[in-house]
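README: folding subset

This subset contains proteins for which both the sequence and a predicted structure token string are available. Records are stored as plain text. Below is the entry for Cobalamin biosynthesis bifunctional protein CbiET (107 residues), shown exactly as it appears on disk.
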Amino acid sequence: MSDAGSSSPLSPVAVVGIGADGWTGLSGGAREVLRAAEVIIGGHRQLRLLPEECAAERVAWPSPLRPAVPGLLAAHAGRRVAVLASGDPMFYGIGRTLAEVAEAGAV
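--- output ---
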């Protein structure tokens, strides 16, 4: 999916599952993804679980979520984006929604 007003494709989006234990429950790889991100998108509760060392711009999901996803991804095209998710994000959660909305390989 590309922004109609731009010729640059969307950057891949990293989906990171985060539990109630927050930062301490994440793998080293997940922590590195979040440290390297320029934008982190998630629910208010999930965003509050991150330490200050994650210096990325934090964006809370709007409501309703699904209609807002294409514009939200387009608004951050060209940036390293990480999405926080709970549960199994690629089966029932936000990862599946992103995969349905974004172009192939973008998630």
